[in-house]
Design brief:
Length: about 450
């Protein structure tokens, strides 16, 4: 076949696509800035295992994973908790992040993928209106297609020409900064909710969790603004008042990470270019889980490339990747970005009201099988508005709920209007309409 495909970065979706394309006969090389064996944060992560099969991978060894505990969501006052009830056949698995990478990388190597470590990707190489390679710390590398898996702050995406119509940067409310660490267990006192997720705890806009394990307590603090270790230490002390198992000694982790929590990218492809994973904002907007979504996207991308009989790799032929992704995931994830905007507009008292009046229910907080990932929900805007009208006596809150329902409807309509085939002018017009829905 002879066509050379470059994967910029060892993101989950990128390495999964690389494996499928290499297996199909393409010459695929991944360029990664980190050293071999150092990928993955020092904590566990969770994802839906069915995505592995979709991406052509086997399940990991049984001693490498366990099934995730159902979450219990708490209102700011913690007066009421809503526990998920995920069916057994839809449970996500929990693995060490480094074991996830090892599993994915070993699979890719078996498929013939080449990986160049300690080679930092600096940006794209653009000739005319086409991406023809990448700039790296070791010099320019040329290929027929560049798959951008460099993540939220991808130097490839952020340095593309304006004419490509691809979103470069994200707003502060479109990404969440998280601090996560495993602390020691301070007491063996049993807990009613093993995996607690707290919304706007302490009156601060953000999400936090405290997950009680046998040998550690998993703490996550998420904010839509910058914060530092002083805030972490102060807030952890606040959480210990209601979570006595949370110790004071950090055993593992202790890192700050930025995750996109916004609508999927309006335009994910260009001549010689396709974005995937965090580079294309494929996470669940309400909380940021994205491994399974990226794996599923890798299948769509690989199939699109393989079906391009002329190996043109143009925006025209790659557009099928975008429409395919939106069909299976994007059309459902985009309205959740509208729901996230509602969440950020609420006060702690209003969120309490949502819980107490059962505008939010256990069914809503249960992960939907169609959106494999943390915090994915099934929300019918019309049903939400009708229920709110029946129980909501606060007119300002009701206005916010109605506005959210209208926005979600507009987002769904915009997704349905996405051009079925590539036409630069039509795509430019559509992307403006789509992005405007979130302003």
């Amino acid at each position: 076949m002879g066509k050379k495909i470059i994967v910029a970065g060892l993101g989950h979706g990128g390495i999964a696509a690389a494996a499928q394309l290499s297996k199909a006969g393409y010459d695929v090389t991944v360029y990664e800035k980190k050293k071999e064996g150092t990928l993955g944060y020092d904590w566990t992560d969770i994802f839906a295992p069915d995505a592995l099969g979709i991406a052509g991978m086997d399940m990991p060894p049984e001693d490498k994973f366990e099934y995730k505990e159902d979450m219990t969501f708490f209102s700011p006052s913690q007066s009421k908790g809503l526990r998920q009830h995920v069916p057994q056949d839809k449970l996500e698995i929990k693995m060490e992040r480094r074991d996830i990478y090892e599993h994915f990388i070993n699979h890719a190597l078996e498929c013939g993928v080449k990986i160049v470590y300690e080679c930092e990707v600096k940006g794209p190489v653009v000739l005319g209106n086409r991406v023809v390679g990448i700039k790296t710390s070791e010099g320019d590398v040329y290929g027929d297609l560049v798959i951008d898996a460099c993540g939220l702050n991808s130097p490839v995406r952020r340095n593309l020409p304006e004419s490509f119509m691809i979103d470069k940067d994200v707003e502060r409310n479109e990404k969440i900064t998280i601090y996560r660490a495993f602390y020691n267990v301070a007491t063996e006192e049993p807990v009613e909710a093993k995996f607690k997720v707290m919304l706007f705890e302490g009156g601060i806009k953000g999400v936090n969790w405290v997950a009680s394990e046998d040998d550690h307590t998993d703490l996550l603090i998420g904010r839509f603004e910058e914060f530092d270790m002083d805030h972490v230490n102060e807030f952890a002390e606040h959480l210990r008042k209601t979570n006595p198992r949370l110790g004071t000694e950090v055993q593992r982790g202790g890192q700050f990470v930025e995750i996109p929590v916004r609508q999927p990218m309006a335009v994910m492809v260009a001549d010689g270019y396709a974005a995937i994973g965090d580079s294309a904002f494929m996470t669940v907007p309400l909380i940021g889980s994205g491994i399974a979504n990226s794996l599923k996207a890798s299948k769509v991308l690989a199939d699109t490339v393989i079906k391009d009989k002329h190996n043109a790799f143009t925006a025209d032929t790659l557009w099928n990747y975008q429409t395919g992704y939106y069909k299976i995931l994007g059309n459902g994830l985009a309205p959740l970005a509208a729901a996230k905007l509602l969440l950020l507009s609420l006060t702690p008292e209003e969120i309490d009201y949502f819980f107490e009046k059962e505008i939010l229910t256990e069914d809503i907080m249960t992960i939907g099988a169609d959106f494999t990932g943390l915090g994915s929900v099934k929300v019918d805007p019309a049903d939400m508005i009708n229920k709110a009208k029946q129980v909501c006596s606060d007119m300002e809150l009701l206005k916010k709920i109605i506005a959210c329902g209208v926005r979600m409807g507009r987002v769904s309509a915009a997704c349905a209007m996405m051009p079925k085939k590539w036409n630069a002018k039509r795509v430019a017009s559509w992307s403006k309409v789509y992005n405007y829905c979130f302003k």
